[in-house]
Design brief:
Elements lengths: L1 H9 L4 H8 L9 H19 L2 H10 L8 H14 L3 H10 L8 H13 L4 H10 L8 H12 L5 H10 L3 H4 L1 H13 L4 H10 L8 H13 L4 H10 L8 H13 L4 H10 L8 H13 L4 H10 L8 H13 L5 H4 L8 H13 L16 H8 L3 H7 L2 H4 L6
Helix pairs in contact: 18-19, 22-24
């Protein structure tokens, strides 16, 4: 025993740490001389992977039974993890953070993964989930099922729960009470239960934020000129905007200011389309240039984007087709009066325009709003269904006749 104790002291353990290691019940069945050989071999093996004695001691103190295993056993389990899809760096992280997983047999680990797959998780995602929640595979099947059930009790479907935990596997570590607290906090801001479910479904990472940090982010947006109502609307539209830190948000806002937009412009843009916080300055410049290439001045392009900020996120090929069609019927200026005319499909705009033309009603800049009066109002006023109108005046048959 003395030889073993001296070896462990020489490796850097304190007497208190040695006592903790040897107090594990698994050491009761191992002779000191055998334990010395196992510990020496395991230290050499682990040192070859983690490179530092301090980390080896850390691993063993987290899981003392490591010294009761043959190196070949741990090697097999490492190779099994690699077979599943884990990389060298993953093995390192698992050893340092969750060495318990290496006490599972290959069969037990495979069974755990099969259980996750049976719950709806994709095998291709399980490795990534474990990277973000290193204790995931160390949980029992019963505990995983209980965690899924707890989240579902808030109103999420099982499919939603699986997708959320695939994206944010640390959700499993937060605990039922904290998850409920975070869920009820979003409701307290003024959202109903259905809206709250949508917010967390889109951005499950919010479960990992403190209530104080979300409060601070709301105050940040209000300090930039947004009303609380606008901030809540933006959060509902794009919950991922809460993932950005204040420096990044400041940079995003400054991008718009540097391009000639005013702060009021930005508030109007983001209030209607909060996804702008995800766009790079290159994307903003590109949209301005796209519009200028179609004949709009810089100021006109800016006005269009301020009043129809969804344009930042749409395919411009589709927008270009709409603009070219409006130009072909002398209504390009209508875009400056009401850019939201671009929201309507070109096939519907064409059908309605041809409908009026067929009735000898001229549509110009003074009455173009008739083209976008709304489905129900149009049908009630003109006693014709939009679906029938689209069949009567099919745009696709005419598209090749237009000269762009």
């Amino acid at each position: 025993m003395d030889e073993l104790l001296n070896y462990l002291r020489d490796f850097g353990y304190s007497d208190t740490e040695i006592a903790k290691i040897l107090s594990d019940y698994k050491f009761n069945t191992v002779k000191p001389e055998t334990l010395l050989k196992l510990a020496s071999a395991m230290n050499d093996f682990l040192l070859n992977i983690v490179k530092e004695k301090e980390l080896v001691r850390h691993i063993v103190l987290l899981k003392p039974p490591f010294y009761t295993y043959n190196v070949s056993t741990i090697e097999k389990r490492i190779n099994n993890l690699k077979r599943i899809g884990f990389k060298e760096r993953d093995i390192f992280n698992l050893l340092v953070v969750e060495p318990h997983i290496f006490t599972f047999s290959e069969e037990a680990l495979d069974e755990r993964i099969k259980f996750l797959i049976s719950q709806g998780y994709r095998k291709s995602k399980i490795v990534g989930m474990t990277r973000n929640n290193l204790s995931l595979l160390a949980n029992s099947n019963e505990r995983i099922a209980k965690m899924i059930s707890d989240i579902m009790l808030l109103g999420f479907t099982k499919k939603e729960t699986v997708k959320m935990t695939e994206r944010f596997p640390r959700l499993f570590r937060i605990g039922k009470e904290k998850v409920e607290e975070k869920f009820n906090y979003i409701i307290s801001l003024g959202f109903n239960k259905k809206q709250t479910i949508k917010i967390y479904r889109i951005n499950p990472c919010l479960f990992g934020y403190t209530i104080e940090s979300i409060d601070n982010k709301i105050r940040y947006f209000m300090s930039k000129g947004f009303s609380k109502t606008q901030v809540l609307k933006m959060i509902y539209m794009n919950p991922n905007m809460l993932n950005f830190d204040e420096k990044t948000l400041n940079d995003k806002i400054q991008n718009f200011l540097d391009l000639g937009f005013t702060n009021d412009d930005f508030i109007k843009i983001a209030s209607f389309h909060s996804y702008v916080f995800s766009y790079s300055i290159e994307r903003i410049k590109e949209r301005l240039l796209d519009l200028q290439n179609l004949g709009f001045s810089f100021l006109e392009a800016k006005k269009i984007l301020v009043n129809f900020s969804t344009l930042f996120g749409l395919s411009f090929d589709n927008i270009k087709e709409k603009i070219k069609y409006l130009e072909s019927i002398n209504l390009k200026k209508a875009i400056l009066v009401n850019p939201k005319i671009l929201m309507q499909s070109v096939s519907l705009t064409y059908a309605i325009y041809e409908f009026f033309k067929n009735r000898n009603i001229e549509i110009d800049i003074n009455n173009f709003q008739k083209l976008i009066m709304g489905r129900q109002k149009f049908e009630d006023t003109y006693k014709i269904k939009i679906d029938d109108l689209l069949k009567q005046f099919p745009y696709n048959e005419e598209i090749n006749k237009l000269t762009y």
